[in-house]
Amino acid sequence: MxxxxxxxxxxxxxxRLKNALKxxxxxxxxxxxxxxxxxxIGRMLVRPESVRCVGCAV
Length: 58
Known about the structure:
- The chain has a single domain, classed as DksA, coiled-coil domain (Four Helix Bundle (Hemerythrin (Met), subunit A)).
- The protein has helices at about 1-25, 40-45, 55.
- By secondary structure, it is mainly α.
- The protein has 3 helices and no strands.
- Helix content is about 55%, strand content about 0%.
- The protein is globular and about 40 Å long.
């Protein structure tokens, strides 16, 4: 059961990373989709698939 959960989470992250690669050259990459502020570089380095800043992600 745990292995299936880990696999599902990994598959979801892979999909999000592929989508991030498609957006990387667009001017909205690294901009929060909620507040439209820049997403902190530290967050983008750890989770490049992020579409929300830390404040909006909670």
